[in-house]
Amino acid sequence: MRFFAQSVSYLVVGVLLTPPVIGSAQEHQKRAVSRSSVRRLNSAEAELARLRAEVVEKMKESRAGAEKLLVLHEEERNRLAELYKQRLGLYQQGIISRTELNQVQRALATAIVRVDEDRKWISEYDIAITEATLRDQLQRLPGLAPGGYSENGTLIRFNGSAPWSLADTAKIESFFSQAFRRSLPISAYGQSPTHDRLRFDHRDALDVALHPDSAEGRSLMAYLRRTGIPFIAFRNAVPGSATGAHIHIGPPSIRTLAAR
Questions:
Q1: What is the mean pLDDT of the chain?
Q2: Secondary structure (3-state) at 258
Q3: CB–CB of 208/143 below 8 Å?
Q4: Are 130 and 236 in contact (CB under 8 A)?
């Protein structure tokens, strides 16, 4: 009887000391799933980075083509401007009709619009390439507290805490036009096809084609800070170059836009 009691005691102790096999298996499975999720996430991020790099390279190629086209369009505009000057003199002398003068005038107006559109496209390419190039640097920077301000050689950041939406653009435009007697040079308003291609969330932001170190850029940033509107100013990815410099108003567009 004593032997039976001792056997039972040993059995109970053995059961208590034996680790729960089921629990261990479940924990092992959880860790395996977690590692698998991390691998999938890293793989997705790597694929997204590869796609962005391809998009940036294609944008650089498109920009080079647009620049060549701009040269041709500027030559055509200059030719028509000289022709219009000649025709205007002939019209004032009564040698040609008003209709003949108007034909050249309309052609010149079209050429001017074409040149402006070329420059706008080039500016959009430069700004998108700059944001994509500086994305990793921006992500590595520490976050800013509400109202926090930070400035380095390439980036100026302000984490304004005032409520913001694209509907507030009108008051920024009003300030700028009163201060500088010209329209605010907005290069991107909300989400654009370029941001879609880069998978950047730009739905509640706008880009202004102003160098942050210019008088207009400094004045605009001072206004944004006074009113609590968040912004990121990009000097440029290439030190000493003004290409792509701009002021991004609103939340950072480096947030990834989910595939639709």
A1: 83
A2: coil
A3: no
A4: yes
Rounded to whole angstroms, the Cα distance separating 38 from 32 reads 10
Domain segments of the chain as ranges: 45-133, 144-249
Angle between the N-to-C axes of helices 98-133 and 21-92, in degrees from 0 to 180, rounded to the nearest 10: 160
How far is 243 from 16, CA to CA, in rounded Å?
71
In 32-92 the beta strands, taken as DSSP E runs, fall at none
Q: Supply the pTM of this predicted model.
A: 0.71
Beta carbons within 10 angstroms of residue 172's beta carbon:
19
If DSSP codes are grouped into helix, strand and coil, which group holds residue 232?
strand
Are 222 and 179 in contact by the 8 Å Cβ rule? The answer is no
Residue 238 pLDDT level (bands cut at 50, 70, 90): low
**Cα–Cα distance between 106 and 103 in angstroms, integer?**
5
Identify the weakest region by mean pLDDT among 32-36, 56-60, 192-196, 245-249: 32-36
Residue 23 has pLDDT above 90, yes or no: no
Nearest CA among 254, 120, 248 for reference residue 172 = 248
Closest listed residue to residue 250, CA positions, set 213, 201, 215: 201
- Which tens digits make up the pLDDT trace of 201-232? 889 999 999 999 999 999 999 999 999 999 99
Rounded distance, CA 202 to CA 254, Å? 8
Q: Are strands 155-158 and 231-234 parallel, antiparallel or unpaired?
A: antiparallel
Q: Extract the tokens encoding 49.
A: 């980075």
Rounded to whole angstroms, the Cα distance separating 245 from 213 reads 9
Distance separating alpha carbons of residues 139 and 252, to the nearest angstrom = 10
* Alpha-carbon gap, residue 204 to 221, rounded angstroms: 18
